[in-house]
Amino acid sequence: MSASTAVLKAELRLFSREPFSLFWIVAFPAVLLTILGLIPSFREPDPGLGGSRVIDLYVPVNVLLAMIMAGIQALPPVLSGYRERGILRRMSTTPVRPAALLTAQIVLHFAAALFSSLLVIAIGRLAFDVALPGHLPGYLLALLLGALGALALGAAVTAVTPTVKATTVVGSIVFFPMMFFAGVWVPVQAMPEVLRGIVEYSPFGAASQALHQAAEGGWPDWTHLGVTAAWAAVLIAAAVRWFRWE
């Protein structure tokens, strides 16, 4: 067994013992979608939304919410905790490099968010008759870029905060605006035109629009994909530039 595989298996055992993290990543988006789907008016076609139902719009939003929960709320305290306790510094003196641990954490959080996304899509289809994504390649690309941006943002938050407490506070401050941009409070498609035009240039506003377009059966607008990819690249560069092992 390679050192990286051993680290991944060890981190998987530790990750499975964190029920609160798993709840917020895996269960919360599905629970939120179920609650919204039980509102009768959300299951009725809305002329103001081009005949779509509100619940149709919230499936891509909750898919993106799973990525945001994993990247901004769950991942940063773990990485910051390892750094604060000196685990990353001690690993740097062993054949197992700290990057192996960071990679394992990113893989596990992405896998949990992906499972949550599949659960949300399944609930939307089986419980509320929401159509499956009409353009699967475009949907997967938008999902991947959104996840990359969320995980990169979480890593950047970890990079600029010195302690676990600071990471938690900053992560929470960042989290709520990102939920708004993703359309959790109000779907991006239902926002006033001026506000929508602004939100679409945020990382998760663009990702939300790209997911919605792919869900409707079309290839996502290249502008939305480009904005999401650009934000992910900037956040990755910031995390790499400022991250410290100790």
From TrEMBL:
Keywords: Antibiotic resistance, Cell membrane, Membrane, Transmembrane, Transmembrane helix, Transport. Residues 20-246 form the ABC transmembrane type-2 domain. GO terms for biological process: response to antibiotic. GO terms for molecular function: ABC-type transporter activity. Pfam families: ABC2_membrane. GO terms for cellular component: ATP-binding cassette (ABC) transporter complex. This is Transport permease protein. The lineage of its organism: Bacteria, Bacillati, Actinomycetota, Actinomycetes, Streptosporangiales.
